[in-house]
Write the C-alpha cells for this entry.
Amino acid sequence: MNVMTQRPNVLAPDLEDLVNEHETSVFEVRDLTASYGATPAIENVSLDIFDKKITAVIGPSGCGKSTFIRCFNRMNDLVAGAHVGGKIFYRGEDLYAEDVDAVEVRRRIGMVFQQPNPFPKSIYDNVAFGLRVNRMTDHLDDRVEKALQDAALWDEVKRKIKDPASALSGGQQQRLCIARALATNPDVLLMDEPCSALDPIATTKIEDLMHELKADYTIVIVTHNMQQAARVSDLTAFFSVEGSAETDRSPRGVLVEYDTTEQIFTAPNDRRTEDYITGRFG
C-alpha cells in the first residue's frame, strides 16, 4: 500500500503516558464517521490503537461497536449504502486511499466473528482456505500446523485434521476460526464478541489464547462482558449513544472515554462511563 495522505501529528490526549513510553500506534483514527445510508452509526471518533496491546471496545447495544471495528479492515465496504468518512491511518498509511487494495487490508487485518463460522470443509481445508486464496501455498502443511498451534488447537485435532470442522465443539470451532485468521500472517486481529456463544470453559480458553497472542499481534475486541474486558484488555474504549427523536438527531454512537483499562474500571473520568460499568444503564 502506498501513502496517499500524510497522517496528522495528533495523539490521543488521554494516553500520553503510553506515547511517552514509546508505544507504537498501529491505527490513528481521526474524526471517523460511518453511516448506513443517511443514518450515522458512529460519529467523530478519534483515538489511537497501540501495537501489541489488547484494546476492548465496550458500550450498550446500538452504539456502533461492531461498525467501528469493521472500519479497520474495510468490511463496511461490502455493505450496500455504507459510507466511511474521516481518516484511519494504518501504520502511517491512509487505509481508505484510492490505491489501497481492500483484499490486502483484510489479509493484514484479520477478523473473528461472534458465532463460530467454519466452512463446510475439513479442519485442514478451513485453515488452508485463506492461504490458497492469497497464493501462500508453499509449505502448506507447515503453515496449517503452525496456525493451529498458534490457536492452541493443534494437539486436539492433529489426528483428525481431515475430519469435518462441524464435528468440533463450539469452543474448538471458534479457535479454528482464529487459526484460519492467523494462517495468512496478519498484523492485527479483530474479535467481535468472540465468546458470546461459548460456555465458561471455552471462554476461558479463548481469553488465555488472547493473552498469548498479544506477544505477536495487536488485538481489538468488542465485548458486552465487563469482566472479560477487565480481564483481557490493556486499553478500553467506551462508546455510548447520543441523539433521539426529542433532540431532532437520530441516535448515533460516540466515543465517550478511552484510557487504560485500569483507569476506566477504577476511576473513569466521565459519569456516563461509570454508570455503564456499574450497571446503571446499558
User: Anything to note?
Assistant: The chain is about 30% helix and 25% strand. Confidence is low (pLDDT under 50) at residues 1-12. The two ends are 40 Å apart (CA to CA). The beta strands are 25-36, 39-50, 54-58, 82-90, 93-94, 109-112, 188-192, 218-222, 235-244, 249-260.
